């Protein structure tokens, strides 16, 4: 059975790079979202067992997505993927429920390590 994964980034190039970094032996069904509203819709539809989430996006940013996930009781393993590597940003997203913070661009090795650490892969 495939794992439902949602890739959330306003940049289509960034979404493609994350998809390319997914471990090749991981059986996934990928949904793409260009903003937080689309991400939440995907999560509500059961398409985000794992979510790769950018922080800086129009309409609804990554922090707002994390707030909504918590408030609505939506369960998703959220891995933040961002160029904003400030320690405060990393601390904030972890306190909001993200399981990991990866700096753009991500590698297959980085993604696989997080997935293995959480028993997802």
Written account of the structure:
Helices cover 40% and strands 21% of the residues. The chain is an alpha/beta fold. It has a single domain, classed as 3-Layer(aba) Sandwich (Rossmann fold). It has a five-stranded parallel beta sheet, with helices on both faces. Helix 2 packs parallel to helix 3. The protein is globular. It starts with a strand and ends with a helix. The mean pLDDT is 96.
What characteristics describe this protein?
five-stranded parallel β-sheet, 21% strand, alpha/beta, Rossmann fold, single chain, 121 residues, 5 helices
Radius of gyration, in Å, reads 13 Å
Shape: globular
What structural class is derived from the secondary structure elements?
alpha/beta
Strand content: 15-25%
Mean pLDDT: 96
Largest sheet composition: 5 strands, parallel
How many structurally independent domains? 1
What string gives the helices and strands in order? EHEHEHEHEH
Helix content: 40-55%
Query: What fold name stands as the CATH topology?
Result: Rossmann fold
For the terminal residues, how far apart are their CA atoms?
13 Å
The CATH class is identified as Alpha Beta
Task: Count helical runs.
Answer: 5
């Amino acid at each position: 059975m495939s794992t439902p994964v949602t890739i959330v980034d306003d940049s289509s190039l960034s979404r493609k790079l994350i998809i390319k970094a997914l471990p090749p032996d991981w059986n996934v069904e990928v949904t793409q979202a260009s903003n937080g509203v689309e991400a939440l819709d995907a999560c509500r539809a059961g398409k985000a067992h794992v979510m790769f989430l950018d922080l800086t996006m129009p309409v609804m940013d990554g922090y707002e997505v994390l707030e909504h996930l918590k408030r609505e009781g939506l369960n998703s393993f959220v891995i933040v993927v961002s160029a904003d590597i400030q320690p405060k940003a990393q601390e904030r997203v972890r306190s909001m429920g993200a399981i990991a913070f990866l700096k753009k661009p991500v590698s297959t090795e980085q993604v696989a390590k997080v997935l293995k650490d959480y028993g997802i892969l």
